[in-house]
Amino acid sequence: MKKSGSHKQFTALCAKYLSKSISKAGLDELSELLKEPENEALFKEYIRINYALDFNLTDYSSAKSKLLLLSKVNNDSIKKRKIKIVAPYHYAVAASIAALLCLGIYLKLQQSQLTDSTDNNSNVELVKVLPGSEKAILTLENGQKLVLNETNSFKNEKAESDGKSIVYNSKNKTKEIAYNELSIPRGGEFFIQLADGTKVWLNSESKLKYPINFEKGKLRKVELLYGEAYFDVSSSEKNKGARFRVVTQGQEIEVLGTEFNIKAYKSDNFIATTLIEGRVAVTHIDSSVILKPAQQAIVINTDSNIVINTVDVDNEIAWKNGFFSFEKQSLSEILKILSRWYDVTIVYEDEAKKNFMFSGVLKRTSNIKELLINIEKTERVVFEIEGKTIMIK
Asked: Do domains 133-311 and 328-392 have the same CATH topology?
């Protein structure tokens, strides 16, 4: 692959990246071209304009003005495309090196803008509300509770944890079927590998119940008691044909080998199941549906029906990949998500502002003030931070 390319080709690739229509080969080519300082500088300028517009979307019609502005710097090559700063989901799931490189440049630029801008115009106090980290509470079969974090590790014949994740021994010969529970507090996340090889990423304020070992050839069953989890299920072929089932709040998901995300928080009145790869069957009361990749099943707690939507899976699993991704979401929903990760309390002095819509992307490792400052720039809301409480005025 050539390391350089024409200006026209480069801008075309940038346009495809921003419009979410770039191919894997295109991402690879763009990655190579970004090694040239001139191209990198130009790409940053494109991202700067796109980023500024993304964080200032206040209604659906604003996308039109965003498209017009970006088209001026892209030689009219994207006049008919919708602009988004999210890589195509196939490559996001595959964690494409090229896509991550582009995101890295975007986030560096974002941090630079925040550093260079004066905070004198912001009402967000310059206090450091720390982001979440890897931490969990492990409840063993005998009821003993262990705190797992970067300073506390754990090991026995059944499992081992370095404080950031826990892996169960696939060769555990214990015949007794016993259960452990892993609870993730507000401001936490954790990774677990079950004894059958299934990998699970747990988000803040979540709890998983699972057996410490599985009977060979028999149904593998775990329970997401509440919260959000991303499952990468070990195939039935590796487990003597045994199927895998996840139970959560009256809903059952059965799979043979696949990747999917479940959101079932106690504070929500619904369960959202998003399929990334493979095939799953979602059952709720008397209803059952088969999901295809990029489909999401919504189950309302008070309804027996299952609603199927096609979604942008990048947004749904951004948390698992280390990002917040909000696309035309209400302030209420955004702050609910942030409150779990940063472990803060949200107080509204003006309830009407809950319904204001915003879009944006931010790393989960960032200080919360960075996102709040950008929202404040819309001049629609004002934030004040006192300790672990955020007030909206």
From this structure: no
Residues 6+ apart with CB under 8 A from 157: 169, 172, 174
Q: Which helix (H) or strand (E) holds 329?
A: strand 323-330
Domain 328-392, what fold?
Answer: Phage tail protein beta-alpha-beta fold (3.55.50)
Q: Are strands 345-348 and 389-392 parallel, antiparallel or unpaired?
A: parallel
Return the closest-CA partner of residue 15 out of 45, 44, 46, 41.
Answer: 46
Who contacts 392 (Cβ-Cβ below 8 Å, separation ≥6)? 331, 335, 346, 347, 348, 349, 350, 353, 381, 382, 383
pLDDT in tens, 74-105: 433 333 322 232 333 333 333 333 333 334 43
State the Cα–Cα distance between residues 190 and 204, nearest whole angstrom.
8
Q: What CA–CA distance (Å, rounded) separates 375 from 123?
A: 11
Give the tens place of pLDDT for each residue, 105-162: 343 334 444 444 444 455 555 456 888 999 999 999 999 999 999 999 899 989 999 9
The predicted model scores a pTM of 0.69
Backbone angles phi, psi at 324, to 5 degrees: -100, 135
Q: Which residue has the tokens 């990423």?
A: 201
Total length of the chain: 393
309/121 Cα distance (integer angstroms)? 41
- Decide which of 2.60.120.1440, 3.40.50.720, 2.60.120.430, 2.40.160.20 is the CATH code for 133-311: 2.60.120.1440
Specify the residue for token string 């990468």: 232
Domain range annotation of the chain = 7-116, 133-311, 328-392
d(CA 183, CA 168): 16
**Over the range 217-236, which residues count as b (16 or more CB within 10 Å of their CB) and which as e?**
eeebbbbbebbbbbbbbbbb
For 310, the 3-state DSSP assignment is strand
Q: Are 376 and 124 in contact (CB under 8 A)?
A: yes
Whether residue 172 contacts residue 142, with contact meaning beta carbons closer than 8 Å, is answered with no
Residue 182 token pair: 């892993």
Q: What share of the chain is helix, strand, coil (3-state, %, to 5)?
A: 30, 35, 35
Give the span between the Cα atoms of 177 and 381, in whole angstroms.
Answer: 53
